[in-house]
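Dear colleague,

Thank you for sharing your sequence with our group. We've completed the structure prediction you requested, and as agreed, I am returning the results in plain text so they can be pasted directly into your records. Please verify that the sequence below matches your submission; if there's any discrepancy, let me know and we will rerun it promptly.
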Amino acid sequence: MWLVPTLATLAAGLVGIGHAQPWRDELASWSAATRSLPDLFRLTGTVDAATGPYYLLLHGWVRLAGDSPAALRLPSALAMAAAAGLTAVLGRRLFGARAGLLAGLLLAVLPGTSRYAQEARPYALATLFAVLATLLLVRALDRPGRARWAGYAAAVAALGLTHLLALTLLAAHAVVVLAARRAGAPATPGNSAGVGHAGGAPATQGDTGEAAAGVGDTGEAAAGVGDAGEAAAGVGDAGGASATAGAARAGEGDTGEAAAGVGDAGGASATAGAARAGEGDTGEAPATTGDTRYRRLPLYWVLALLPVLVVLTPLLLRARGQRSRQLDWVEAARLTDLAALPGGVAQSSVVGGLLVGLAALGAARAGRRALLPGLCVLLPVLLVFVGGLVVPLWVPRYLLFIVPFACVLAGAALIAAPARPATAPPWQASAPSGAAPGSPSAAPGRPPAAPDATPAPALAARRWQLLAPPVAVVALAGLLGLPEQASLRQTHGWPRSATVDYRGAAEIIGAGQEPGDTIVYWPRDGWLFLDLGVSYHLKERPRDVLALRDQRQRADFWVTECPRPADCLAGARRVWLVVAGRRPDPLTVVPTATGDALRDAYTVTRRWHRPNLTVALLTRD
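Please find the predicted structure tokens below.
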């Protein structure tokens, strides 16, 4: 189930991965990763400390795989593929196998997924660790134990090391932990006493009030029905092995998929009477309301985060004083930014709007079962937005890690998309989607259906009929995003019209340079990184004649230029001038003493224009 989204995302991430030239953020990653370890440590003391662990990872990777665009981006592609697989697992854990599969596939087709799978920045890794930490939290709430809490702590530490703002996800985790503690049982679906229970319905009712006792994973089936209502009493999902009466204890159904006489979603079923109605615990150990382990869940959660705090404190202290330099280009958050967020993280306004609509529908249909993924979407957005009103923090890609949780909610919406037949076939004794708990089709006293005798091909055809409409919606999302999928493989700049063609400038200089040539860039103090872009694409290049201290010596991404440009230019016969923008006369835009020295001693011999760049060859008068 998880393999299909993983492979689909990996394929989408690898297609054209090396075509678009690195943009300015990736150039910063390349510059940091190709420095020596002492230089890299000094860099993080000046700027980009929060991204330092990613630079360290990339440093080791570059030594093994090289620094081509594809090599720089491959770790992100692998991380995003793993994130899609874990999204499918989390969706299955919360809403059933079909919902998980659809959530993973939806994440795979989003243009934003491909975009950040093909970027040498830490956002794909943060997305992976966000989903992993949440999944491990669910497992720890199912059955608290030291190993499970340790795994959760490790995932949260990795999340913080890759993206500090992603730690806002912990607010959602805290609420879910408190809800599980209040319920006295795991906060996952299928547990009639836990937070997955919809609106206080009796224990014999399904999680969302849509089906009777013994409801399967998605709450769509009546008593005696397997996962998502696809198998009858005593029949394992897709005809797996059966178990004798009494072989399954209450609470042994994975993610609440085994109730009275219901087969485990992994392929084994149990006959009627094998479990008590309403006791489909989430996992792996039965629990009773008031169980000491669940009363102490907040304590366990806080204790798990203590080593995380120890690991992240040095990073937080190192990054504390760098905000003004790193985020000086970010504006204060505005209400209109919230409306633009879906399009920003999905890299398509249309697809982002579709995702929001599906997620909202899934949250409404799932009810209280949507607590975990819903909070994982809403609380980070709210916290970063409120913080962005005070300090410059609001950048849509910083919230990429919430997208998998929106896909999980969308998957919950899609499994309810196909209308159920008025009369269920003999092998599917399920209530129609949305049936009221007290309706005849969901009556808890209704006897289980007879064992299924439908041929396997008919069962497969029925499953495809159930899956085809939601898969069509996922395919529609993919089709709507095709224009953005094509454009992001041409350029990573945002907006697309703002692409800076470093490669084009380097090709011009490389083709025309002569021994003794020098080069001058303008501007040098911003985030365009003209010198880094030309350096990346042109290993043998003219001497940077005005640079007194380069990036390594300064321990940042800029250079210190000569205070007396006329003296530094003395003896330089030819100068390559690279300036930002399309300039009919590039000499006129270079300000201060540098511009005066060039205008006094040089004449433009030839000029080339590339997207958002002008290259000129100057010769001494």
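Summary note from our side: The beta strands are 242-243, 269-270, 518-522, 543-544, 547-549, 560-561, 574-580, 602-610, 613-620.

Kind regards,
the structure core
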